[in-house]
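A note from the maintainers: we've had questions about how concatenated examples are separated. There is no special marker in the raw files; a new sequence line simply starts the next protein. For clarity in this README we add a label.
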Amino acid sequence: MFVSVNASNDKIIECNQALINTLGYTKEELLALDSIAELYHPDSLSTRDVIIREYKQKGVVKDKEVILRKKTGEKLYVSFSVTAVKDKEGNILYSRGIWRDITKLIEKRQNLNKLNETLRAKNEQQATLFHILSHDIQSPIRTVEHLSQWIIEDKNNILTPASLENLSMLRLVNKQAYKLTQDLVSLFVNDLKEIPSTFNLLRAIEAIKRRVFLPDSFKIRVSSPISTFKTFNFLLTEVLYNLISNAVKHHHSAKKGEINVEVENQGSQLLVKISDNGPGIKEDLREVIFEPLKKFHGDHNIEGYGMGLAIVKKITDQIGGKINFTSVVGKGTTFCLLWPVFDEIKEAC
């Protein structure tokens, strides 16, 4: 739609048939308007004022979204561009404007905004649901843990070996349920934000050993010239815990299990390698290994619900790190982690 407007009185002096057909006026009606401003919808008058100021300063305006008003009163969303036509002295004689109908674009944008709002509301509901579930489920889980522990510690209680075995199994299943709710909240709800602080590598590994109930014969070795450094302390601990825990749980021979932790200083980041001599990961699982709720082994006795590597990937992506792995079936897997560090790094003694 093309239109020319007199600079002195803001009246339309020429327009094309497309504008006439779209707005529903006759050409005579358009030329008789006191000002082109009458074609603008009230919702867009402030935008027009901004366009006029820019037009007077630069003599040209490109691709400004405005709302016109058809003769029926209906809104018409358009993209507006205008160029000034000047005399030899540089005075503006009239303008040449182009309106492009962007109604479909606006409708798509509005639908997308509505969809985003709906998704945002659903995400908030989902977060609330997970928080409720984690609290309401974890409370009785903790009660079962305490009661079962008291039963075991009760000296006057006499239980058969079979009953003790069943009680131990109950505590194991209870612990798995607790870990699952923790993992779900960590993966789907928590923002996992943290202020960098001092991280002690050896101390963190020792704490992780206790968390994973490391078998006596299972060896974890740390090979690193670096002792402490400033980074996302809690998040790195969680990543190392999940990688080590995963290697321990899925190892085919705990008596011969070995995990090597190597850390190299690469300036503003560290290269962390977690290597094991476990069963390895099949090549056809490479694309889905970090997906949540995936289990890649058929042994139902293996604790966990396939959340560990998904949590590792989410945390690593969030802090701007990278993770990949190499694996040989039957010989083991090495996860390579690029992790940010801040300030100076202290060498190990």
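[label: protein 2]
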Amino acid sequence: MIFHQIATGGCLSYLIGCAESCVAALIDPEARQIDRYQGLAGREGLRIRYVIDTHTHADHFSGARHIGQALGVPVVMHRRSSVRFVDMRLDDGDILLLGTMRVRAIHTPGHTQDSMCLLVEDRLFTGDTLLIGGTGRTDLPTGDPDALYDSLFTTLRNLDPSLKVFPSHDYKGQGSSTLEQEFALNPRLQKRGRAEFTAMMRELDLSAPMHMTEALRTNMSGGKTVAQMLSDASAKIPFMSLAELKDRVARGESDLLVLDVRERDAYEQGHVPGAKHLPRGQLELRVNSELPDPTQRILTVCEFGKISALAAATLRELGFMRAVALDGGMQAWRDSNFPIERS
């Protein structure tokens, strides 16, 4: 087996491949590592055949859909997944052929209803069902402590104890464990009675993951994250530096329209001298009356330099081909002690 474990913070993903047939599967890919996965596969001479998510992630952004579309390969999840863009849904016991390797799906609900582990030779990819020294939480959407108890103490307990455990999260850099080690040492697996275990899981009182709402929304629907929208917009437009704008304002240039796209209160408290006000939320509705000349050079400005990128990209889509965005925002402008005009 060709094997790579890729860490992104505390998240783990895996590239596994058959050296004989040069085909591979990508397990629990993270959106920020897409280029790295493709680079690893290319370096190993592998062609990715399947992209697999072990469950619907709520704590990070899956790269499954993007990679599946880019490579023209199926996105694979369990049958109970509510993710819309899944191409292949597996039942408990289904097997994927990966050259001479066999990838067996084992349904292990509890962390989520669609959680599954993947058994490949001597390795068990446990997703968030079983972690090193812990388990997945059960207090997020579709979580169920009773189901997790059955998955751990009935399903996984009956597998070969020498199986190597590779989870989707590891915050201590341990990398892997074995089923034998986990059932012997994992504190949560010492609560072996159902009532004791489920009570422990219900009383964990964990804080919600960062970006949970956005992660669930994008991972289930395939929609874009805010970061993706900003990145896409920034790739479509040029920018102007703070110093360049300061010099142009000082010279009193009239061929550049500075367009402040913040809300009125923020604009009136202080803006670039001579800036015109048009809130981003009204841009499409008022563009024809407020910006009659599509040949004019327009510089969009916001508070932190993000919404202005979206506004400039929108203007270019609307035909204002000289629209640019300020590299930075009014906060950086003020911090630089550049001139401010107030209404």
